[in-house]
């Protein structure tokens, strides 16, 4: 507020405040004549023509507060003497028209509350009286005051009554709306051309006073869909169009959309859309469309829309959108048009969830717009963000159906790398989370083309944060398991497409993608049939290359995958033709253990895993299994830390008593080593854990028919254990003795004492 306006406001406020104080004193003395006199002095300040609209509004609010107190006084006077008609007659004799009308509205409000006159008659009289003030600002605020005072007095009944019916309220509000809109628009044409921008700002400051009428109409419970369609909407749109003013039309159309129920908009969509074509050229019609479509979309979610079955809403909207595109230049406004497409595609998906062609049509329209206006080369950030939103809606709703839409990849190509990657990740997440299977070579090719920003580095690649990168690659790894086909040849080809893409991804991605691909090939091996062109040998060659690559990147993972591949041959090589390949996998696991693992804890866990796996492989000849077991046993018994030697020898012993190989001599050799170490450790270092481990291994192998195990040997260790069991191993000892006891009840483990 500039200094002149502030000075004028302060002067007027001082008068209002002084008059208010004097009016209060008159309240206390019940001097109605003085009350009216001081009220006139106060209201007369609103006759000013020097105040800007914003300053005038501040002054109006001060006067409004005083008038609220005045209304309370008039009600008290009525209760005291019951002469409301005389009071109404009395204020009509106030000479100045503006104070007179404010007082008439105030007394009229009380008059209606007394039920001595119908709201219909009083409001009709007051709306006519207000025509006496035609100054734009003074007339606008006078009618705004009338609107405020009538808020709780508008008849809202569908049936005729003494107070009136809802049609009377509709007529009152529409008349007030029409007059206020006319006065508001007239403000634009006061003053010189150079003040145009200033006047537009001032008008925008006052727009809520006009929009209040629309809000009042929407709050009338009696305004049914029928009344809205036949009276409220046509007359409101007539007022808006007759204003021939862009500011008024822009704001009031948005008011209509925001104020009334979405169901009403849906049933009158054609009227609303037709009206937009008749608005002033400078009206931002796209924004109106967007608000309307978003409101209907929100309403359509989860609602059974019968009207959708009877009226082709999509075609209706598309006709108007196409017309808007043809009549309006998109130069500099591509972002707004794409935002319109976002609202349109969202509505289409809500109203026609199974119609992919509608979505495809909208995407193609977006591509045509961008190609025509920009070729996608100079899109701003907002446009790119809106393209990402445009792609996200069909992706969330339609899943892989977007792969068949030509406009989708084209729109993706306009995005910068980061946004493109986000859309690609959403595609992958959608496929994985919804369990959408990739069932053909063509689908796999198209899918991987869409998400290439996740598969390998390209020209505009931007490095992801470590956490984001891990999430992306884990989803890519899960994607390979969505490939299915009953035809082994086709499935093999689809996995091959993934393999080729994964090899392009580099080491950082392969640590995530190769293991998933290896397990996908292993699963595929179980589906091979004699009639398939692909043989298990073909699969093992591919697996070997993948495992070799992983072993160089991550040896700890490499030896585990080698063992998995050996199990694959063990399970599916029914003709026993691939023993050499299986041996190579198992041997590689031992080589990795020996040459590439340095951490002692990692080596300890690795030898346990390797020995356990070798014990279950049955695809080797005696010579090969003995060689593998001897190497593994050597590592287990000699290359571990001192406190793990006992367990290492026990592992070695079990290697030689498995499905593939049963060599009692070797079993006893390693058991005796473990026995000796455990006894020494138990007697010298009180190591009860090692003793109990050896006892349990003796019991296990004895139960599995290793005949050379003697009860006397076990009893010797049991005697040692009794002496050194501590709190840490007491539960282990108790479980061991319970096991012996239960087996002896079955007639087994005879001779063992505890």
UniProtKB/TrEMBL annotation:
It is a peripheral membrane protein. GO terms for biological process: intracellular protein transport; retrograde transport, endosome to Golgi. The keyword Transmembrane does not apply. One of its GO terms (cellular component) is cytosol. It comes from the Eukaryota. Keywords: Membrane, Protein transport, Transport. Its main location: membrane. It holds the Pfam family Vps35. InterPro entries: Vps35 (IPR005378), Vps35_C (IPR042491). It is found in: Membrane. PANTHER family: VACUOLAR PROTEIN SORTING-ASSOCIATED PROTEIN 35, VACUOLAR SORTING PROTEIN 35. Plays a role in vesicular protein sorting. Belongs to the VPS35 family. This is Vacuolar protein sorting-associated protein 35. It comes from Stentor coeruleus. The lineage of its organism: Eukaryota, Sar, Alveolata, Ciliophora, Postciliodesmatophora.
């Amino acid at each position: 507020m500039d200094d002149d306006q502030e000075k004028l406001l302060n002067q007027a406020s001082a008068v209002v405040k002084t008059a208010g104080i004097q009016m209060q004193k008159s309240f206390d003395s019940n001097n109605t004549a003085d009350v009216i006199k001081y009220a006139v002095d106060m209201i007369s300040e609103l006759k000013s023509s020097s105040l800007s609209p914003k300053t005038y509004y501040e002054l109006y609010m001060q006067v409004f507060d005083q008038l609220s107190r005045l209304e309370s006084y008039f009600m008290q006077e009525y209760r005291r003497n019951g002469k409301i008609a005389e009071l109404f007659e009395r204020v009509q004799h106030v000479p100045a028209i503006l104070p007179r009308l404010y007082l008439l509205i105030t007394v009229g409000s009380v008059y209606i509350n007394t039920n001595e006159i119908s709201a219909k008659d009083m409001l009709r009289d007051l709306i006519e009286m207000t025509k006496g003030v035609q100054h734009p600002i003074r007339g606008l605020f006078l009618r705004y005051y009338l609107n405020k005072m009538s808020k709780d007095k508008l008849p809202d009944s569908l049936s005729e009554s003494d107070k009136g019916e809802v049609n009377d309220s509709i007529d009152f509000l529409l008349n007030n709306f029409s007059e206020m809109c006319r006065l508001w628009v007239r403000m634009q044409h006061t003053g010189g051309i150079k003040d145009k921008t200033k006047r537009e700002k001032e008008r925008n400051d006052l727009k809520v006073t006009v929009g209040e009428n629309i809000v009042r109409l929407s709050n009338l419970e009696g305004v049914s869909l029928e009344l809205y369609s036949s009276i409220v909407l046509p007359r409101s749109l007539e007022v808006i169009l007759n204003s021939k003013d862009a500011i008024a039309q822009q704001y009031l159309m948005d008011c209509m959309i925001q104020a009334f129920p979405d169901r009403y908009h849906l049933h009158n969509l054609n009227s609303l859309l037709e009206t937009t074509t008749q608005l002033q050229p400078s009206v931002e019609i796209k924004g109106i469309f967007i608000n309307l479509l978003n409101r209907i979309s929100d309403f359509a979610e989860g609602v059974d829309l019968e009207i959708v079955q009877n009226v082709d809403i999509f075609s209706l909207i598309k006709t108007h959108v196409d017309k808007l595109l043809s009549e309006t230049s998109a130069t500099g406004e591509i972002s707004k048009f794409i935002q319109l497409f976002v609202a349109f595609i969202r509505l289409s998906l809500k109203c026609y969830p199974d119609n992919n062609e509608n979505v495809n049509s909208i995407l193609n329209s977006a591509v045509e717009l961008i190609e025509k206006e920009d070729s996608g080369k100079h899109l701003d950030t907002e446009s790119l963000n809106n393209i990402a939103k445009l792609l996200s809606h069909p992706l969330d709703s339609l899943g892989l159906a977007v792969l068949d839409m030509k406009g989708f990849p084209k729109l993706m190509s306009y995005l910068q790398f980061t946004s493109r990657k986000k859309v690609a990740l959403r595609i992958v997440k959608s496929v994985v989370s919804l369990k959408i299977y990739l069932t053909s070579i063509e689908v796999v090719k198209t899918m991987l083309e869409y998400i290439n920003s996740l598969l390998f580095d390209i020209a505009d690649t931007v490095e992801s944060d470590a956490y984001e990168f891990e999430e992306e690659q884990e989803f890519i790894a899960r994607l390979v398991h969505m490939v299915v086909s009953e035809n082994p040849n086709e499935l093999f080809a689809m996995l091959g497409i993934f393999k080729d893409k994964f090899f392009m991804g580099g080491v950082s991605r392969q640590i995530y993608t190769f293991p998933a691909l290896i397990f996908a090939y292993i699963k595929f091996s179980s589906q091979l049939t004699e009639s398939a062109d692909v043989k298990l040998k073909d699969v093992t060659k591919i697996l070997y290359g993948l495992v070799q690559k992983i072993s160089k990147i991550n040896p700890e993972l490499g030896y585990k995958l080698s063992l998995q591949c050996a199990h694959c041959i063990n399970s599916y090589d029914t003709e026993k033709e691939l023993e050499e390949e299986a041996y190579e996998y198992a041997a590689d696991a031992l080589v990795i253990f020996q040459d590439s693992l340095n951490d002692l804890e990692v080596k300890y866990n690795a030898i346990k895993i390797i020995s356990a796996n070798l014990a279950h492989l049955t695809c080797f000849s005696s010579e090969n299994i003995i060689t593998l077991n001897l190497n593994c046993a050597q590592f287990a018994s000699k290359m571990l830390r001192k406190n793990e030697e006992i367990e290492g020898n026990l592992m070695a012993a079990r290697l030689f008593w498995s499905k593939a190989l049963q060599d009692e001599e070797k079993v006893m050799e390693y058991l005796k080593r473990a026995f000796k170490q455990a006894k020494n450790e138990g007697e010298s270092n009180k190591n009860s854990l090692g003793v109990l481990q050896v006892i349990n291994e003796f019991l296990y192998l004895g139960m599995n028919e290793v005949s050379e195990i003697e009860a006397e040997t076990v009893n010797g260790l049991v005697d040692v254990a009794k002496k050194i069991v501590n709190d840490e191993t007491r539960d282990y000892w108790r479980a061991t003795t319970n096991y012996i006891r239960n087996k002896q009840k079955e007639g087994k483990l005879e001779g063992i004492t505890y």
